[in-house]
Amino acid sequence: MILTVTPNPGLDRTYAIPVLERGAVLRAGTDRVDPGGKGVNVSRAVAAGGRPTIAVLPLGGAEGELLSRLLGGLGVEPVEVPVVGSTRVNVSLVEPDGTLTKVNAAGPELGPAESEALLATVGRYAPRADWTACCGSLPRGPAHDWYAELADRIHHTGARIAVDTSGPAFLAALRGRPDVVKPNLDELAEATGRAVGDLATLGAVMEAARELRAAGAGTVLASLGADGQLLVEEDGVHWGTAPVRTVRSDVGAGDASLAGFLVAGGRGPDALAAALAHGAAAVQLPGSAMPRPADLRPDAVTITDDPPRGRP
């Protein structure tokens, strides 16, 4: 079972539009509403693959009630931590060429008691999980080291934790020694004090990932966009790619990738291959739809344990 934690979940409303014009009245061809947030997306991807998953999340207001119902309909077991504020609603505008414009709401502020209740709830469920995936931005209220505190509590139960966040929360989380972290290039650069341009080769990405391991991360699964993913762990380094025919939407693709990685064990080239297959399938689906087994093409994934360090 995969347990997910989303400290700042939301409803994701996606509109398909012909072209984005500032100041104009836009008419959507299609629209959809999905439960959103990075951890929520991980649970949705796990459930789409027919695997059990529990999503722990703070919910409030009518928006929170709708999010919970939507999750249940998708095969995800929601565990709600009640909060005073209303769950946020995010809006995405997708153009035919895949260009995405997204507006994310701030979300409710969590008080000390609500923040502690969220930590305690995760602690109760973590021992039952193969992995606990803690994902997304922190809401207003909790300190930057909230993920580090959560990692300490989860490790105290003997369970494993994967963290996918950014900014000060990511740096602080490393002090909790998470078993897996999943940065993209921007997040990897920021966390290691580099410019994104400094990570222009696989060799440079490897070195930055090793710095994250030295700072506390167990395994680094780095997303490189169209250039695939790089896995740096105690047992070695693996790099892989997966072909994509048409990009329809990249919303949630990284979360689907993390889901594939954890379901496949969260370690080694087989898990990396699963991550790549899930990510490639997700970007070819509309909105934040998650891939089902029939959407995956694991045979198209290419993996090597000898990445070309000079490759741009």
Automatic annotation (TrEMBL):
Chain segments carrying region Disordered: 288-312
GO aspect biological process, one term: carbohydrate catabolic process
Keyword Metal-binding belongs to the record: no
Transmembrane helix found in the keyword field: no
Domain Carbohydrate kinase PfkB, residue spans: 22-293
Gene3D superfamilies reported in the protein's UniProt record: 3.40.1190.20
GO molecular function: ATP binding; phosphofructokinase activity
InterPro entries associated with the record: PfkB_dom, Ribokinase-like, Tagatose/fructose_Pkinase
Protein name: Hexose kinase
